[in-house]
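Consider the following input, taken from an annotated entry for Nuclear receptor domain-containing protein (Helobdella robusta).
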Amino acid sequence: DKVCGVCGDRALSYNFDAISCESCKAFFRRNAPKNLDYFKCAYDGRCRMDVSNRRFCKRCRLLKKCFEIGMRREYILSDEEKALKRQKIEANRYK
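Applying the prediction step yields:
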């Protein structure tokens, strides 16, 4: 029984080098590459992060939680890396 380090929801495994739920994994993949100035917090970084309000403040979710628990931006695959990975998977299926 793993718990997401970002929002406290049920987690299945490690994602980007931290235990996180599927929702926070997808959020991190979409938002980590963006410029951090893009995100604003209406409450000066004092947002509480849990399952019920994780979607209300992107800045706090990304900065205060995702990066603090150790999620790593460099683990996000580029489009080329994704295509190469798919090719390897297909090649292994034929073996």
